């Protein structure tokens, strides 16, 4: 027996798409039931984690419609769907096989428990700075310098400003397909090599940072039609994933998840504004303030610094 | 013909779950192929937005396994799956029907284009403050005052500090089921009524804010076992959704999406640290700095203030 509600849903007539979210796998549809407006929100359900279901990934025979999309080294991408679907796209899942997988892969794809940490100027100088130096040494930044010296990726440069002190290079991030403006994701690498992170920014850098902000925004808008300066989010990570100063320039419509969260991302404009308002002369800066952010429990900073300070 | 890659995937033997993300509908599985480690990442695919597929929501006959989960007024929740699935959970989608839907619903579920805006102290005083005042007047904050006066929701209070100047009330957010610690979501409402937003915080408020931070964190940890102070994210929204000062206290593992993004959320600890570092005496504060954040194009602030200033 059909419930009255089910009957309502079955008489929905689709009109137009209101919104979609590819990250959460949702579409919002506007339509009519009789002559009145109705909205249907369809969201894929999350995988259940019942042992029985998870076991079904063992030697899966039900995935008869399995197709390889791409392969790169140990990474294999497939699209999988049930054998008998009339609505195959509805049923599809993307499967990535990493084989053989090392301990590093296992750690990377395991639950990353997070912790909030507060880094005082003292903790920065005594505990974090030595870690940062170790991450800059031993050729670990060679890949950045290769890019800056155009030994690599020079064909990808989107904007370039060759001024030795103030210059930068804007490059596409791997996450971006280099076409879709709504998911534009680029990275500005500064040419100067003396700034490791936001911690090295000082009040005297404000004029430079303002010019950098302006050039990045104007550069992107000159290069690409279909995006305006106020549709670009400029931010810095602290901690960053590598210690050569760089700025993320990303379409505002791109949902960057945890990488855009407060406690990881700082908007460039607010960094500038905080520097401007600081008590003190030009040499004062982010090395002098307390910074609170989150780190993964598996990170070196948690394991070697903050978990020990907590005790 | 099976490809070698497909053969590999079909010989995967499930070991254990490494991670799951219910927001993006992903599970990471660790297992073996022969005797070597292998990882399978399964992610539901996003809905296609092909007109043909979207049309299939019209008077859907293929959704034979449709079940009503709940109904509240105009909201109807269903689980839908294909008729013939051997793996029904794999194929399921959650459908929400809003019927009848008004213009407000349609706007709410439409694409919300965002814009970055920079609010100088002058723009705040001349354009934003009048808007804030209008949002505080006409009884619009009565629901907050009812809570503070315990006319409503008093049975939900998690922590209470009745000090007139420094007191606050901690309440669960509607998003929280009040049980699962990994998705803890609470809100601290301060008792004093003179702070509308972060813009009213001054350097002289630092000692109070530090005590507030300590009391909220200790209060939550006293009340609930299974969560530690450094697993709680404390943040303020700017712009907030209502103009009575409140602090979000949320489990660090809860993915709050855009509401936790830089440009909307400010960590309480970094707000305190910025105030501390400001040039000037006790009366200086966030009313004196430039703040950059994002707003929806449908918002009153964009439509009545920032889009006009842009011209």
Largest contact between chains: A-B, 128 and 128 residues
> How many H/I helices of chain A?
9
Structural class of chain A comes to alpha+beta
Counting DSSP E segments of at least 2 residues, the number of strands of chain A comes to 14
Strand content of chain A: 25-35%
Mean residue pLDDT of chain A: 89
Oligomer: homodimer
Largest sheet of chain A: 6 strands, antiparallel
- In helices, the fraction of residues of chain A equals 25-40%
Strand order of the largest sheet of chain A: 8-9-10-12-11-13
Low-confidence segments of chain A, given as residue ranges, are: 83-91
Shape of chain A: globular
Overall radius of gyration of chain A: 24 Å
What order do the helices and strands of chain A follow?
Answer: HEEEHEEHEHEHHEEEHEEEHEH
- Through-space gap between termini of chain A: 62 Å
Salient structural properties:
about 300 residues; homodimer; alpha+beta; globular; six-stranded antiparallel beta sheet
Descriptive overview:
The structure is a homodimer of 311-residue chains. The first copy, chain A, has 311 residues and is of the alpha+beta class. In chain A, 27% of the residues lie in helices and 28% in strands. Chain A has nine helices and 14 strands. In chain A, β11 and β12 form a beta hairpin. The longest helix of chain A is centred in the last third of the chain and has 18 residues, at 206-223. Chain A is globular. Chain A starts with a helix and ends with a helix. The model of chain A is unreliable at 83-91 (pLDDT under 50).
């Amino acid at each position: 027996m059909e419930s009255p509600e089910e009957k309502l849903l079955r008489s929905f007539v689709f009109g137009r798409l209101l919104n979609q979210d590819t990250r959460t796998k949702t579409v919002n549809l506007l339509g009519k039931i009789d002559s009145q407006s109705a909205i249907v929100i369809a969201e894929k359900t999350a995988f259940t984690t019942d042992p029985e279901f998870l076991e079904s990934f063992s030697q899966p025979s039900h995935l008869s419609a399995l197709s390889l999309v791409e392969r790169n080294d140990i990474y294999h991408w497939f699209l999988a769907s049930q054998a008998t679907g009339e609505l195959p796209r509805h049923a599809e899942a993307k499967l990535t096989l990493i084989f053989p997988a090392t301990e590093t892969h296992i750690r990377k794809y395991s639950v990353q428990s997070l912790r909030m940490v507060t880094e005082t100027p003292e903790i920065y100088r005594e505990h974090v700075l030595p870690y940062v130096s170790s991450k800059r040494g031993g050729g670990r930044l060679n890949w950045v310098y290769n890019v800056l010296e155009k030994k690599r990726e020079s064909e990808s440069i989107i904007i370039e400003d060759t001024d030795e002190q103030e210059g930068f290079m804007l490059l596409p991030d791997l996450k971006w397909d280099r076409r879709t403006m709504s998911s534009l994701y680029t990275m500005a690498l500064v040419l100067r090599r003396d700034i490791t992170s936001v911690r090295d920014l000082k009040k005297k850098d404000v004029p430079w940072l303002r010019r950098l902000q302006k050039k990045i925004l104007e550069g992107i808008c000159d290069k690409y039609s279909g995006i305006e300066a106020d549709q670009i989010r400029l931010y810095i990570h602290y901690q960053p994933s590598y210690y050569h100063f760089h700025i993320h320039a990303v379409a505002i419509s791109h949902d960057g998840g945890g990488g855009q969260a407060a406690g990881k991302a700082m908007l460039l404009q607010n960094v500038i504004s905080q520097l401007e308002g600081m008590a003190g002369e030009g040499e004062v800066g982010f090395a002098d303030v307390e910074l609170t952010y989150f780190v993964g429990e598996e990170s070196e900073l948690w394991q070697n610094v903050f978990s020990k300070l907590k005790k």
